């Protein structure tokens, strides 16, 4: 890193909603061209989790009305992020997709336009999110589709090399020995980069499809089943957002899984006996002549929650238990309400928590939390599952936040930026300036960009 610059966090929580602005410091910036040759700039503003990082997007020399709304981060895998932008003027294709990389081919942030992605995606019914692999000096995009007529999966890939086109292969899925050959339908919630050309499509209910997207031959994938669900989560199978209780990541040669379980207790609700008029001296007019029927009953009450992590190497045929932590072991916290400390210490088990995000090392888990499901105040809780401690409780905007599917996603950063000295330029916006590239390698568009930059 440059002298005086602190080392960046190796992992961030990235807000899926971008800001339409041009930041001046603390950013990693890259440029590309739209289909009409308009310059688009994307800058990464980094904050240590559990604070949220975000992208700033703008078209230099244009105002915010260039976009129909703030561009969105569709998905991420490793240090790749897919950004969708809807333009209002200047482009025949109003919706376009760009890939931001924290470290591009020249060890600096890069931004690439995916040509005709929307049209191909609709025609082939591609399933988002996408996967990304960096190979030599080019990028490979990978996607899955499912043929409803033949009940087969297909692998689609696109290279960033000039004049490349989408390719499509039948995906042969190999199930683990002894696993019943039921109809396999993978509805992946995320894609993880496993090193080399390997990608894993993660269905948080069923399993992980692992495939080498750089293999020139037939596309073969093997299924890694997910760990068994914890008891209270079994009724949720197929009926709820799996992200609300699970996450999977990959780091240092191991796939890791975390599962959150809400603990409930069955309690009997006893109704007190009704007063007998025989024993009453007065009967108030406000009292009903006939009391409504009342019955005893049972109800489930949330009494806490617990986390468990699992890990496995790519060559193993089993998951091994990592860390376990119970909310009773974490003590109390003093959250901020209305922008200031509430003055109360609340047992952490009293907070509603959901949507665990596992950091790559497998110890830190970030949870979305609130006092109630629809509470206007929300926090992100950082829990160290190895030390069984709360590292930090950070307020975040609850506007539009759905506790069980928050708008932020994990993003791996500094293993791509900090391991080489050139990555130090991430802290200085202008130091990252390089000529933007489009997948089609159009020289005419490059010349048009140079002219635009000189005018700006």
From TrEMBL:
Domain spans labelled DUF1618: 201-366
PANTHER family, per database record: DUF1618 DOMAIN-CONTAINING PROTEIN, EXPRESSED PROTEIN-RELATED
Origin organism lineage: Eukaryota, Viridiplantae, Streptophyta, Embryophyta, Tracheophyta
Species assigned in the record: Triticum aestivum
UniProt protein name: DUF1618 domain-containing protein
A Pfam cross-reference name: DUF1618
Region (Disordered): 427-456
